[in-house]
Amino acid sequence: MSAKIGDTMFGEIVGKVTASKDPAIKVGDYAQAYAGWVTHAVVNGKQTQRIPELPEGVPLTLTVGTLGMPGLTAYFGLKEVAQLKETDTVLVNAAAGAVGSVVGQIAKIKGCKVIGSVGSDEKVKYLKEELGFDEAYNYKVVTPDKLGDELKKLAPNGIDVFFENVGGEASSVIYSHINQKGRVAVCGSISSYNVKGDKPKVTEFIHLLIYKSIRVEGFNVMTYFARRDDALKEMVVWLKEGKLKYREHKFENFESMFDAFAALFTGQNTGKVVVTV
Ligand SMILES: NC(=O)c1ccc[n+]([C@@H]2O[C@H](COP(=O)([O-])OP(=O)(O)OC[C@H]3O[C@@H](n4cnc5c(N)ncnc54)[C@H](OP(=O)(O)O)[C@@H]3O)[C@@H](O)[C@H]2O)c1
């Protein structure tokens, strides 16, 4: 998916209904839609999503974060794509972000050992002290040449599930630490999105897939949206129980859209980037 100059940039919004011709949607209701970067949207009622019942004190913006598309990506990526088991050791990268932070927490809820890769020491601290990850490392310090030794320490019994958000050379090293019958949920490859010319490569893994019987599956969360409501019910319970924590990185005003988007690529954000208009 890519946007051309002049297109409305894609994205999800949640907002108040100011006029409605759909009897099921009332003025004053809140609704969610993939309307892109806009201050106001005209959408077909059938293309709007229902807002899940939010626990008290939970901001509406969580419906585009932990209780929205990114949270569901984590949920279905682990449950359906990675076929998560309680005995698994899970490694997730971009682990302090909107998807990764939920991946790690759900895997902990399910009883797994969880390791996170992030781009700063502050985020390492956040994962371990606030989100309950077992281990975390800063990939800017633990560069691919050092990663093998680090993973021997952090995951001495190997990795069963790799939740891939980033791609690139570090992933080659991670693949070589995946166990027999390991599973890779390929969610994203953010390290390559803005690269023109030669993309960062996962270089050495095909032979590993063969002799370790590793299953690698890419997925798009939309595939699972028919089961969205049941997943959200379960996640709301975890939120109420304090097992699912979140941070949002908020920007104000429509004019900050570009800065908000750019933050994703510099790692400025912790948790979901949200713009309030
Ligand atoms: N398959 C699907 O259906 C689906 C759905 C939603 C999202 N996604 C994908 O999931 C991934 C995470 O999305 P998100 O919304 O949760 O974003 P996010 O994690 O909230 O933000 C992106 C994070 O990626 C890290 N990052 C950026 N450039 C990097 C690089 N070159 N190398 C390593 N890390 C880098 C940064 O954290 P650090 O500070 O740690 O570097 C940044 O904070 C993305 O690849 C996205 O495209 C896929």
UniProtKB/TrEMBL annotation:
It catalyses: 13,14-dihydro-15-oxo-prostaglandin F1alpha + NADP(+) = 15-oxoprostaglandin F1alpha + NADPH + H(+); 13,14-dihydro-15-oxo-prostaglandin E1 + NADP(+) = 15-oxoprostaglandin E1 + NADPH + H(+); 13,14-dihydro-15-oxo-PGF2alpha + NADP(+) = 15-oxoprostaglandin F2alpha + NADPH + H(+). InterPro entries: ADH-like_C (IPR013149), ADH_N_2 (IPR041694), ER (IPR020843), GroES-like_sf (IPR011032), MDR_fam (IPR045010), NAD(P)-bd_dom_sf (IPR036291). SUPFAM superfamilies: GroES-like, NAD(P)-binding Rossmann-fold domains. The keyword Oxidoreductase applies. Residues 6-275 form the Enoyl reductase (ER) domain. It is an enzyme of class 1 (oxidoreductase). Gene3D superfamilies: Medium-chain alcohol dehydrogenases, catalytic domain, NAD(P)-binding Rossmann-like Domain. It comes from the Eukaryota. Its EC number is 1.3.1.48. One of its GO terms (molecular function) is 15-oxoprostaglandin 13-reductase [NAD(P)+] activity. This is 15-oxoprostaglandin 13-reductase. It comes from Stichopus japonicus.
